[in-house]
Each structure stands twice: as structure tokens, then as C-alpha cells.
Amino acid sequence: MPIIETRDLAVGYGGVRVLEGVGLSVPEGRISVVLGVSGSGKSTLLKTLAGLLPPLGGDLLFAGDRVDFRSEACLRYLYGRIGVLYQGGALLNGLTLQENVALPVRMQHPDMPDGILRDMVHSALSQVGLAGSAAKYPAELSGGMKKRGALARALILDPDVVLCDEPSSGLDPITSASLDDLLLSVKETFGMTLVVVTHELRSIERVADRVFVLHDGGLHFSGEYADLAASEDGFIKTFFLRKGSHDDA
Amino acid sequence: MAPETNRPETALKAPEVLLFPRRVRAPEVPGLFRDIQRRAAEGPLTLDLREVEDFDSSTLALIHLVRGLFPNVETTQMRGTLARAAESFIRRPPPAGPRPAARRGRLGRLFREYAEAFLFNVRSVGRFLSMFGDEVYHLGVYLRERRGVYPGETWNQLFFMGYRSFPIVCLLIFLVGVTISIISADQLQLFGADVYIADLIGLAMLRELVPLMTGIILAGKVGAAITAELSSMVVLEEVDALRTMGVVPEKYLMVPRLLAITLAAPLLAALADVVGIFGGVLVAQVKFGMAPSAFLRQMMNSVGLSDFVWGLAKAVVFGWAIVVGSGYKGLTVGRSAEEVGRATTESVVLSVTLIVLIDCVFAFVLY
């Protein structure tokens, strides 16, 4: 059973539909990549998958249950089972890195003993290689460190799914590759499901198990990475393989 | 040799020829355009562009515009790069026609704009009141459950709102106290009522000036800071991050600030009362030789504890208006950086407006 499924989903802002008729299913324990050109609606779709932006039509199902965006209890349940890695990291500037990582635990389990919380934070930061920077503030961290710190925060409560919004954007190829390694190790070690929004070809090649291509206001392709690589579709060849003509699409 | 033109010869009178120089760039274009306008009004005109070698986009725009504006102006065949550039420039699609709304009458458009602005403002007021209600609810829930807010955040906010605002509040209130005393001292002296300066300063400070001035200073200092901070958090997706961590941002971010202002505003107002009255005492001593003890005795004749308490209560209400207004502006900001600045300015205006409005209501209720 897919962990996330959408049926005829329409997403957008203020009544303007950016995407329509999106039907995708995210398999459990694998990395699914959502790709498309800038403005194709990747981040908007991710916001809806994260429960932040109510859909303009259709349904979002999480672990087989329909997500009711009008029900606070339903959204709280969803938030409790997902972690989100935002494009810029979105660490709170007023808190140190360890306070940032501890925040979800503090808020959801305020009676958690300090000793256990400290160990949880240390473990999460060690996984992303930032145990030595725990006392630093976000302003003192590089772009790559912020994203790794944000990943630690997303992972600390062991969510079922981690949604990543353009994790490689703004990073040099080496840092970007190390972040990809981290995502792969999260999948391998914890069997976690990841949904990664990106248009970085190198990242897609490295991490993607399943790929969803957004184009022209809808879902253009859905399938395994191997199928995508072998696709003869004009748009995919132009965008993904950088050959053929866009006009063929 | 007559220049070859791209339009058939139709005019009876031989067209005048305007020879464009080798260089036609932005500095030359306005003068040339004026020249063409003048000559085109007199009769047919041919623009000889064959010499043009050094040009920029303004040259192309000039050719494009002149061809569209003046039917009696013709151009010679262009050569080389200019011909290719002009071709690509002219091939661009014409500007879109007027929108349907533009065809409506001016009055209709004006009415529609006002109606839309009115509806937008009504919706904004509704959202603001809804947020105010939500904050009261969140505060109540927090006081009962003591969760959902970062530990120690209230003290951080109290430090910022109270301790950091204390010097500027005291300085400004002291100066207001001195100024009001000097102005009123002259008038009171005319009637030989010097002694009543104590009554006037006491009442004005405790009932009106201190809460009002404290509120306005806090709106500028604290309100602007709240909006700037929260709106930056929205733009940087930190508010979204809080939400997906299972945190209610309207509670996590606003409750500590509401608690802090509830404590800071009356404390600041009480201190400002002392400082403002001290300003009055100082002026009374210097201008009339009135002893401080006499000033205070006289003041106590007309000022009661209720004036002091109502002044503090007003400060608390103003503080709440500032925090909720600024928080509302901060959390409803758009997603672009320039909206942070706009929201910050608007939050100060909103806070000051709310303060004056609430003060007016207090005046009706109390006096």
C-alpha cells in the first residue's frame, strides 16, 4: 500500500490552479523524486502533501486515510507522521542548533526527561555529522550545515515520511552529493520514505527510485527511474536527458 | 540618388528627408524624436537610416514608434545589423488590448475599486478580530496546560519589551512632562493659579499622557520588531516549519509576547508616571520656586488611586492591541522580502490607530 496517494488532486493559491488531476502514489521505504521546471508546481504540491496548503480539488490519502484539511486533529496526526526539510532549512534563528533539533520533542512531549532529550538530539545531530556544532546558532552555520541540521530536526521524531524541498539548491556539488548520501543512508538505515522535490539532475540520478514529472499543469510522467531514463517522451528527453527537442513534447 | 523606401510613394509633395547620423543612441534619441514630430506635422518625411552604425535599443524603439505614430513618415531600407535588429524588435507582439475593465466608465471603475477596497478592509477586520479571539483562547489554554510555548521565551520577550524599552520611554515621558509643565506654567501664571500646575500634571500624566505615550513608543519599538521578526519567519518558511512540527505558530509565537506585554506595559507606565511627574516637579521648582513636597501634596488633592490604576489598565490594553496588531500583520504577510518592510510600516500605523481608537473609547467610558 502506498504511504501517500493523491487522487485527482488540484493544488494552487487563491483559487488559481497550478496543478490539476494529479494522481500519484508514493511507495513506502523508497525515495520518490518530484521534478519539473521552475514554476511547474513542485513546491506547491509538496506544501499540500505536508498538510500546509489545502487542495483546490481531489483527495490526499496518508497511509490509506483521507486527509481532511478542515480537521485540526487530522492535520495534527499528519504532522506527527511527517518531517519536512525546507529549502532554506528554516531553522529558527533565535535558537541554537541543538535547541532547534529538540524543538519538536519539547513541543509534542513536554514531559520528556532532559537526559533522554539530550541523547536524542545528540544522536540526530551525529547522524548528520553536526554533533560538534550543536551549540551554534543558525547564523553561524553554512548553507549545507543548515540543511543537515534541518534534516536532523525532521528526523528526530522518526517520521514515516520525510518531505524534502529542493535539498540541493544553493549548494556546491560536493556538499550537494554529501546531502544526497545522507538521504540515501536515511532510507537504507531506517527504511524511511522520502519525497524529494528537485530539478538537480545529479541528485535525481543518485537518489531516485521513483520519479514524478510535473509539466504543463499536471503529472506528466510517473514511474521508476529506469523507465524515465529510457523514456522517448520529448519533454523528458529535453528536460531530463538534455537531448531531442522540447517542441516534440 | 533618392533613398529607396519601404512604402509606396503616395504623397503629392516630395517628402523631406531626415538623415540619421552614424551614431544614434539613447542621448540622441529624444532630440531626434522631437525633430521628427515637428517635421512630420509639416508634411511627409523620409528617415534616411543608411548611415546608422552605432545604435542601441532606444534607436530601434524610436523607429518602431515613429512607424506606428506617423503614417506620413517613411524609412529607408536599413542595412546590416540595424536591419536585423529592427526586424527582431518589430516582430515582437503588439501590446495587449485594453482589458474589459478598462472599457467601463470611469465612475464604474472607481466604484468597483472602492467596493473592492472596502470588502478587503472588512475581511481584514474580520481576520484581525478572529486572530484576537484565537489569541485569547491560546493564552487561556497555555495558562491551564503550560505547554506549546518554548520555555523561557516569555522572559526573553519581557527583557526586550520592558528592560530595553525602559530608557526611551522614560526619556520621552520626562521631556513630555517638562514641556507640558512649561507651556501650562505660563498660562496658569496669568491667572495667578501657579499652584494648580501640580493638579494638571498629575491628572494629565496618570490618566492620559503616560499610557498614550507609552503605547505609541511601544508601537514603534516593540510592534515594529514583532512584525519584522514574524514576517521574516513567514518568508523564511520558519512558520511553516513550526506547523509541520506539530506546533501552533499563533500560540508558540504570540503567547509569550502577550504575557510579556501584560507585565511590561504597566511596569513601564508606572515608572513613566514617576518620571513624567518628576519633570513637572522640576519645572514647578524652577519656574515658581514650588517645593517638591508642596507639589506632591497639591497633586494628591486632585489625583486618586483610580487614576493611577486606570492609567496602568489602559497601558495593558494598548499593549495587547500592539502585540495582536503587529502579530496579525507579521503572520499574514506575503512570501516576498519587500512585503516585510511594508508590513512593518503598516503594523506601526495599525497599532497607533488602535491605541488612539481605544483611548477614545476609554475617554467615553471613564470621564
Secondary-structure map:
The complex is a heterodimer of chains A (249) and B (367).
Chain A: E1 4-13, E2 16-22, E3 25-26, E4 31-36, H1 42-49, E5 57-62, E6 65-66, H2 72-81, E7 82-85, H3 97-108, H4 114-127, H5 143-155, E8 161-165, H6 173-190, E9 193-197, H7 201-207, E10 210-215, E11 218-224, H8 225-230, H9 234-239
Parallel strand pairs in A: 4-9, 4-10, 7-8, 8-9
Antiparallel strand pairs in A: 1-2, 1-3, 1-5, 5-6, 10-11
Helix pairs in contact in A: 3-4, 3-5, 4-5, 6-7
Chain B: E1 16-19, E2 23-24, H1 29-42, E3 45-48, E4 54-55, H2 57-69, E5 73-75, H3 80-90, H4 100-103, H5 106-145, H6 153-163, H7 166-190, H8 197-235, H9 238-244, H10 249-252, H11 255-288, H12 292-302, H13 305-331, H14 337-366
Parallel strand pairs in B: 1-3, 2-4, 3-5
What does this structure look like?
The complex is a heterodimer of chains A (249) and B (367). Residues 243-249 of chain A have low confidence and may be disordered. The longest helix of chain A is centred in the C-terminal third of the chain and has 18 residues, at 173-190. In chain A, helix 3 (97-108) crosses helix 4 (114-127), helix 4 packs across helix 5 and helix 6 runs parallel beside helix 7 (201-207). In chain A, the strands form 2 sheets. A 6-stranded mixed sheet of chain A has the order 7-8-9-4-10-11. In chain A, strands 1, 2, 3, 5 and 6 form a 5-stranded antiparallel sheet that branches. Chain A is globular. Chain A has helices at 42-49, 72-81, 97-108, 114-127, 143-155, 173-190, 201-207, 225-230, 234-239; strands spanning 4-13, 16-22, 25-26, 31-36, 57-62, 65-66, 82-85, 161-165, 193-197, 210-215, 218-224. In chain A, 38% of the residues lie in helices and 24% in strands. Chain A has 9 helices and 11 strands. Chain A is of the alpha/beta class and 249 residues long. Chain B has 367 residues and is mainly α. Helix content of chain B is 74%, strand content 4%. A 3-stranded parallel sheet of chain B has the order 1-3-5, covered by helices on one side. The model of chain B is unreliable at 1-5 and 7-11 (pLDDT under 50). Chains A and B meet through helix 2, strand 7 and helix 3 of A and helix 9 of B.
